[in-house]
Structures are given as C-alpha cells and as structure tokens.
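Example S7 (structure tokens).
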C-alpha cells in the first residue's frame, strides 16, 4: 500500500510522555491534506499544544475493504506504532484523541468505540454514521453501489464491527471515551446523526452535542474543529 500522512507538531518541546495527539480523519473524496488546506487546524492545534496526525484513507470508510486494501489495519494499528516513537507522540489514553468529518466522523467513532482503551475522546462532525446499515436500492447510482461492494461486500453490515450504532452499546458506559457529535441542521446526514443521538440516549451514553444551522461544508467544520479542541480533556 502506498499512502501518505500529514502531521503537524507544536513548536514547543514535547512534554514528558510525548505530545498529546489528535488523529484527524478526512471525508470521502479527500485525502490527508484536506484539513490543512481548508481549515486553520495547524494554527488551532498550536494554540492547544497538540500534535495532529492526518492520514489518507482513500474512499475506504477506514475499513479493511472486502475487495480492496486493509485501511483499518494501517490506520488503527500500524500507523500509531510507527509514528509514536519517531515523533514523540503520546500513547497514553488520556492524551490520545480522534476526530473526523463525514466519512471520517464515522471512522473516528468506529476507532474510539472499537478501541475505547486507547482514546480518551472522539468527535464526529457531520458523520456518515449510518454507513454500515445502508443496503443498495434501485435508486443508488452505480458509483455508490460499487463503493459499497468494494468496502463492505454484499452482506448487510448491521450489528457488525463496522456498525457504530452496534458498537455504541458494546462497552460499559463508564469505559467509553468522551463523545462529541456535531451536525448542521441543513446537512443531508442530519437524520442519521439524530438517530445516533437517540440510540445514545436509550443506552444512557452521554454525548456533547452541537446541532445548529449549517450544511455539509468546510465553514461548518472549521468552526467545529475549534470547538472540539476547546472541548478535549487536555492538560492546560
């Protein structure tokens, strides 16, 4: 697999144990450069003294694809191991966080819910949280049908390890990372985000919410990533 990762590091020396680290995931159709091109993430992160790791995940939904590459294995397991010592990144749970937008919001919650022992907090911005529960219909365009076939195959992935609704109820509430969900009220993904919040309420899982006017666009995400950084349980 040939891929790339963008990393921003604070200008200050790393604290004992390494820099607190945010893994920040992009959306469908973008790559690891998107956050630095479309937001002020490098400046915001510097203000908080946090390293940001932005891997490219192609169109994988951060999954070991049924008919493709092992993106989940790379981003969830191999990447943190390779970068941690090389760049003085903390591996402590209390200093490790994950966030993302759209496809990356889904990926962020999947990472945090499958590995709650590794992440202190996770944020989904306009997350495609219902991805694993979608089955092709006659109305689906060929491109979307082919994408689902590549990523998930033909089987229904509901209640699997790819389904964040299912994962939400798998870990005791006390052991879950802190969760943050943002979605614009005009976003085409708002209904599945509201459904996820309803599932969380049913399970007694607290989620910090930011539901406000906005669409599926970078102005919304630039504002929200600043809110996320303010919300993270960083040592100040």
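Recovered sequence:
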């Amino acid at each position: 697999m040939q891929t790339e990762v963008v990393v921003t590091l604070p200008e200050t020396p790393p604290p004992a144990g390494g820099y607190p680290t945010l893994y920040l995931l992009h959306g469908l159709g973008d790559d690891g450069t998107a956050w630095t091109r479309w937001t002020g993430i490098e400046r915001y992160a510097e203000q908080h003294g946090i390293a940001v790791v932005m891997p490219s995940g192609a169109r994988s939904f951060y999954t070991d694809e049924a008919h493709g590459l092992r993106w989940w294995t790379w981003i969830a397991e191999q990447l943190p191991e390779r970068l941690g010592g090389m760049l003085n990144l903390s591996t402590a749970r209390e200093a490790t966080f994950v966030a993302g937008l759209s496809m990356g919001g889904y990926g962020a919650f999947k990472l945090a819910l499958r590995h709650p022992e590794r992440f202190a907090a996770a944020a989904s911005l306009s997350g495609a949280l219902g991805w694993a529960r979608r089955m092709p219909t006659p109305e689906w365009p060929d491109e979307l049908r082919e994408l689902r076939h590549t990523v998930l195959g033909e089987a229904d992935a509901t209640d699997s390890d790819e389904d964040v609704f299912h994962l939400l109820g798998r870990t005791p509430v006390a052991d879950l990372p802190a969760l943050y969900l943002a979605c614009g009220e005009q976003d085409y993904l708002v209904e599945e985000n509201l459904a996820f919040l309803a599932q969380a309420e049913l399970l007694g899982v607290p989620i910090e919410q930011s539901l406000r006017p906005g669409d599926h666009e970078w102005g919304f995400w630039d504002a929200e990533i600043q809110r996320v950084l303010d919300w993270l349980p960083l040592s100040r």
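Notes on this example. The chain has a mean pLDDT of 96.
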